[in-house]
């Protein structure tokens, strides 16, 4: 495309949804301006770019905003179809499978994780952990199905499902400390465990994912703040 | 002429997600075998084809199942790209806008509908109904933005977003019938009210959308099921 091509990403350093977009931009070799947002004091730019949800990430391409991490990922793949690798598979059936698993991750993994993280009582926490581990087990099966023995969900190279799950990696790595259970282990999820190693070694991961220690500390602080405000 | 595709759709006539997929197939003029499912007594075929979610719709093409209505609609659009009108727009930005609003409708409208039908108290029901009004207000704005003064979200003829929103009109009629609430009215949401009328008159809608009485009956069956489940806890 001739002329100026301007990409701006509104995000927060801790957000896994923002990490997803950073991963995709990096994998495509795209340069962009990153603008850290203060969600307690939302900028005009954020509010005008995402009036419906007022959330990050927002990708602004030549002044036009795209919202929702999954929508942004598909947009990047389509708007930059001839730049860098494809994020989604080319075969329609494989695309449908990839879309299914990304939706599954968004609908099923996050909620029990949050329950396990914020639970007040032991019973609630145990239930959250149980559900989260069941989802992780299903994802182990998904990895086997999608990778067909290759390193990633996308096969030889990182794809859409890898990015969708990969964006959550810092949280997943902090899960033992934050939720009281390891999400992956060699007995139940050997493929995912190996996938985590591979994914975190990627340049894109080093750029896009927040530091796990910093994230865990931040999450604990937020949780304490929320607990305090509820007790008032 | 290409051979008839080996195509089956497992569905339930009043499910908005199933209606959406049937409309997509209709838009593309693709012949298929439709198999109505009993969701209170799930078939082997459904459980095998949708092992993770065990839900409808499931499109089975040459024996391979595709699940999740947004994934199915895009699959249909891609496989039958050379047949019929495009379901999603061609431009990447417009596709992103269509996907954004489809996700919005799926995240907000259907859960509010279920919440309304499932509500145990009047207070709860009112809360859910207010949520639905908020969603419809947002969709009214979306329509203004997307349609650019034309008849449908997608322009002169129906597209992805029309079927994504339109497939839920039946549910709104169910709530009107059961609770007397009007969610699409010329006062509050004039653009949507006019669009809903046009949408209802399309071939796709006429072919695929069942009568509201069928939907009300199903809703009542669901409510009885929830009540029984709650009682046994």
TrEMBL record, chain A:
Q: Which superkingdom is the protein from?
A: Eukaryota
Q: Which organism is it from?
A: Triticum aestivum (Wheat)
- The entry's protein name is glutathione transferase
Which SUPFAM superfamilies does the protein's record reference?
GST C-terminal domain-like (SSF47616), Thioredoxin-like (SSF52833)
List keywords of the entry alphabetically: Transferase
Pfam families from the entry?
GST_C, GST_N
Q: What is its EC number?
A: 2.5.1.18
List, in alphabetical order, the GO biological process terms annotated in this UniProt record.
glutathione metabolic process
List the GO molecular function terms: glutathione transferase activity
Family classification:
Belongs to the GST superfamily.
Instruction: List cellular component terms (GO).
Output: cytoplasm
The residues covered by the GST N-terminal domain are: 5-84
- Report the residue ranges that make up the GST C-terminal domain in this protein: 91-223
Give the catalytic activity: RX + glutathione = an S-substituted glutathione + a halide anion + H(+)
TrEMBL record, chain B:
Compartmental location: Cytoplasm, Cytosol
The protein's Enzyme Commission number: 2.5.1.18
GST C-terminal domain location is: 91-228
Q: Which GO terms describe its cellular component?
A: cytosol
State the Gene3D superfamilies in the record. Answer: 1.20.1050.10, Glutaredoxin (3.40.30.10)
Short name of any one Pfam family annotated for the protein: GST_N_3
Where does the UniProt entry say this protein principally localizes? cytoplasm
Q: Where is the GST N-terminal domain?
A: 5-84
Which EC class heads this enzyme's classification? transferase
> Which catalytic reaction applies to this protein?
RX + glutathione = an S-substituted glutathione + a halide anion + H(+)
Q: Which GO terms describe its molecular function?
A: glutathione transferase activity
This protein's source sits in the domain of life called: Eukaryota
Kindly give the InterPro entries that the UniProt entry links to this protein: Glutathione-S-Trfase_C-like (IPR010987), Glutathione-S-Trfase_C_sf (IPR036282), Glutathione_S-Trfase (IPR040079), Glutathione_S-Trfase_N (IPR004045), GST_C_Tau (IPR045074), Omega/Tau-like (IPR045073), Thioredoxin-like_sf (IPR036249)
Q: What does this protein do?
A: Is involved in the conjugation of reduced glutathione to a wide number of exogenous and endogenous hydrophobic electrophiles.
| PANTHER family in UniProt | GLUTATHIONE S-TRANSFERASE, GLUTATHIONE S-TRANSFERASE, GST, SUPERFAMILY, GST DOMAIN CONTAINING
- Put simply, this protein is called Glutathione S-transferase
């Amino acid at each position: 495309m001739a002329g100026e091509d301007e990409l701006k990403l509104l995000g927060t350093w801790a957000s896994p949804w923002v990490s997803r977009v950073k991963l995709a931009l990096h994998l495509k070799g795209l340069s962009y301006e990153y603008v850290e947002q203060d969600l307690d004091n939302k900028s005009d730019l954020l509010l005008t770019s995402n009036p419906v949800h007022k959330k990050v990430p927002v990708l602004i391409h030549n002044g036009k905003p795209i919202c929702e991490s999954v929508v942004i990922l598909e947009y990047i793949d389509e708007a930059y179809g001839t730049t860098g690798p494809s994020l989604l598979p080319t075969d329609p059936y494989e695309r449908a499978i990839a879309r299914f698993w990304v939706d599954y991750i968004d609908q099923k993994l996050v909620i029990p994780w949050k329950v396990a993280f914020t639970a007040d009582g032991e019973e609630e926490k145990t239930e959250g952990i149980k559900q989260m581990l069941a989802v992780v087990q299903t994802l182990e099966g998904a990895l086997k199905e999608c990778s067909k023995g290759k390193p990633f969900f996308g096969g030889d190279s990182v794809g859409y499902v890898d990015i969708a799950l990969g964006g959550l990696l810092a949280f997943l790595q902090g899960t033992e400390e934050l939720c009281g259970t390891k999400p992956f282990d060699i007995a139940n999820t050997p493929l995912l465990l190996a996938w985590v190693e591979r994914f975190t070694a990627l340049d894109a991961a080093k750029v896009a994912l927040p530091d796990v220690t910093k994230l865990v500390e931040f999450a604990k602080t937020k949780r304490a703040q929320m607990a305090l405000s509820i007790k008032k | 002429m290409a051979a008839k595709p080996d195509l089956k759709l497992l569905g339930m006539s009043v499910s908005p997600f199933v209606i959406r997929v049937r409309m997509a197939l209709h838009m593309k003029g693709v012949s298929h075998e439709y198999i109505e499912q009993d969701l209170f007594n799930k078939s082997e075929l459904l459980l095998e084809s949708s092992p993770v979610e065990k839900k409808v719709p499931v499109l089975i093409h040459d024996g391979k199942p595709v699940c999740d209505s947004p994934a199915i609609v895009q699959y249909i659009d891609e496989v039958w790209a050379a047949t019929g009108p495009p379901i999603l727009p061609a431009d990447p930005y417009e596709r992103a806008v269509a996907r954004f609003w489809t996700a919005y409708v799926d995240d907000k409208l259907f859960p509010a509908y279920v919440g309304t039908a499932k509500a145990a108290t009047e207070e709860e029901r009112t809360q859910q109904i207010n949520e639905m009004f908020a969603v419809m207000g947002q969709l009214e704005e979306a329509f203004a933005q997307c349609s650019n003064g034309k008849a449908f979200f997608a322009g002169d003829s129906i597209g992805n977003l029309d079927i994504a929103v339109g497939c839920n009109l039946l549910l709104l009629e169910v709530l009107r019938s059961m609770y007397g609430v009007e969610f699409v009215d010329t006062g509050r949401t004039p653009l949507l009210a006019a669009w809903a009328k046009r949408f209802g008159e399309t071939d796709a809608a006429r072919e695929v959308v069942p009568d509201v009485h069928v939907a009300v009956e199903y809703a009542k069956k669901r409510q009885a099921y929830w009540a029984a489940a709650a009682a046994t806890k």
